[in-house]
Design brief:
Elements (H helix, E strand, L loop, with lengths): L1 H8 L4 H13 L13 E3 L2 E3 L4 E2 L10 H6 L4 E7 L12 E4 L4 E4 L8 H8 L8 E6 L8 H12 L5 E5 L14 H19 L8 E5 L5 H14 L3 E4 L20 E3 L3 H4 L2 H6 L1
Parallel strand pairs: 3-4, 4-7, 7-8, 8-9, 9-10
Antiparallel strand pairs: 1-2, 5-6, 6-11
Helix pairs in contact: 5-6, 6-7
């Protein structure tokens, strides 16, 4: 049944298939995975297994309970912005079928932190680790203030928070991965979390999500600054704006962030042996 459903949705436009999958999970229409137990501890959190669902799928925290049924050790919802915003014009998701790849330029389409909070407040159990990924509105003149607002509004629902500074689809956002922008946004998130959660006990740890397109020096500098700010870990990485030369799809030059198998970056095992 589920293989047939996957085959049918693969014939639909990509964003429509995404939205239908969200609604199916929201309604509990999903297979229940065999329990995979491979306990992992990160930042004081106990994961049943180390396989998690990244942010970008359940953008408005609508379907996280259905996602947990699939067997993920953690589910990260978002990216959630303070105010609702439409994101970029459609089409904005592209399947590169021949390359087993996807390009998206959603642009933080979000119903906003208040809608997400309403969905998160109905969480009936503490099964699984729930992450909340927060971002800034595209037209915001004070991006750091946006991270404070979202952290203050959503921290009490989160097992951990992720500060997303690395989406390639919000103009200027990646500039905040460096120096004072990074310090300001992380400090704002810490302040917002502390305003919401009060005493130290029970406060969710904060991670930062960085881009794969930083060079080594930029990456190490950003990591040093983030550690100085007190973050608990890194999420590496967001989607990339680079394009391997061996992509063959006609859609390979669409703007946006891309994801593809490692074989496109490093070659197949056969190619690796012969190089």
């Amino acid at each position: 049944m589920w293989q047939l459903a996957a085959k049918l949705t693969s014939r639909l436009p990509a964003e429509l298939a995404h939205n239908l999958t969200i609604q199916a999970l929201r309604l509990g229409l999903a297979p229940v995975a065999n329990q995979l137990l491979l306990p992992t501890n990160i930042a004081g959190m106990a994961f049943d297994n180390p396989v998690g669902l990244a942010a970008g799928f359940d953008k408005n925290a609508e379907a996280y309970m259905g996602a947990f049924r699939l067997g993920f050790g953690c589910v990260e919802v978002g990216t959630i912005t303070p105010l609702p915003q439409m994101g970029n014009p459609r089409p904005r998701v592209f399947r590169l079928t021949a390359d087993d790849a996807v390009i998206n330029r959603y642009g933080f389409n979000s119903k906003g932190m208040r809608v997400a909070a309403a969905h998160l407040s109905s969480r009936s159990t503490r099964h699984g680790i729930l992450g909340v990924n927060i971002g800034a509105n595209k037209l915001s003149q004070d991006k750091a203030a946006d991270y404070h607002k979202s952290a203050a509004h959503l921290s009490r629902f989160a097992d951990y928070l992720t500060v997303n500074l690395s989406s390639p689809n919000t103009p200027g956002l990646r500039d905040l991965q460096h120096e004072e922008g990074l310090r300001a946004c992380l400090q704002a998130a810490f302040d917002g979390r502390d305003d919401a959660c009060g005493p130290k006990a029970g406060r969710p740890p904060i991670f930062v999500k960085l881009a794969p397109d930083l060079d080594a020096a930029e990456l190490f500098r950003s990591m040093d600054i983030a550690l100085d700010c007190g973050i608990s870990g890194f999420i590496l990485t967001n989607t990339t704006t680079s394009r391997p030369e061996n992509l063959s799809s006609a859609l390979k030059d669409e703007a946006g962030g891309a994801f593809w198998p490692a074989s496109h970056l490093f070659g197949t095992a056969e190619n690796s042996r012969s190089s």
